[in-house]
Specification:
This protein is α+β, with helices and mostly antiparallel strands and 224 residues long. The protein contains nine helices and eight strands. The model has no long low-confidence stretch (mean pLDDT 93).
Length: 224
């Protein structure tokens, strides 16, 4: 089965079970076929599904930052482990590609109270947790993107004020090339996905509408 066809089938399943709405479905289909990195779009959708399921099953809110596409070459420059007890994957190998959603959610549930990021390589192997990201300068990222605003949240395109986790995540998605980065907001359970310094998916309605509008404009431009 072709990759895009497999993604479409999975999204149809998620839509039928009301895990994603119509706008999310449109956005995720677009991500699958237009992403600039070469991470398997089926894996991207699976990580999102894991996070959505974890939120639904969690009584308490939690925050999380996940980087998909991490390279070990980045460890020395961009990663710091301040608490060894929060890194559960140094000697264990968990492959998300071959794991069912329930099993993956159980693993992620162990991480939801940890500080720091969850690192997953492009093949879907979870390689670290509780990682503090360092040497990521959001102002330099904005300069590179040629974006400005009254504050970092606005400059990066957020429709609501966000805190350090989200600014770090969107910066990481630009600095760490060919990654797909996810955040869960502890304050309101909003999930966002970032690539190349931009929000490419969000469960926040205002951001969803803007993304859908851009996708429709891109499609119309290609037709004309």
């Amino acid at each position: 089965m072709k990759i895009i066809e497999a993604v479409t089938n999975r999204l149809n399943f998620l839509k039928a079970h009301k895990i994603v709405n119509d706008d999310e479905n449109l956005i995720l289909e677009y991500i699958a076929s237009h992403s600039k990195n070469d991470i398997d779009p089926r894996l991207k959708i699976k990580v999102l599904e894991i996070l959505k399921t974890l939120i639904k099953r969690s009584k308490k809110s939690f925050g999380m930052l996940v980087i998909l596409g991490w390279k070990r070459d980045w460890n020395a420059k961009y990663a710091a482990l301040l608490d060894e007890t929060q890194n559960l994957f140094e000697e264990k190998k968990y492959d998300l590609k071959d794991m069912d959603i329930d099993e993956a959610v159980k693993i992620f549930s162990m991480l939801k109270n940890f500080d720091g990021a969850v690192l997953i390589n492009k093949e879907g192997i979870i390689i670290a947790s509780g990682i503090y990201l360092i040497n990521l300068d959001p102002k330099k990222a904005l300069d590179k993107l040629k974006q400005k605003g009254e504050d970092l949240s606005q400059a990066f395109g957020f429709k609501a004020k966000v805190h350090t986790r989200h600014i770090t995540a969107i910066t990481a998605s630009l600095v760490l090339e060919d990654t797909t980065v996810y955040t869960v907001s502890e304050e309101n359970r909003i999930i966002r996905i970032y690539e190349d310094g931009h929000i490419i998916y969000s469960t926040l309605k205002e951001e969803q509408k803007e993304l859908v509008q851009k996708i429709k404009e891109n499609k119309n431009n290609k037709k004309s």
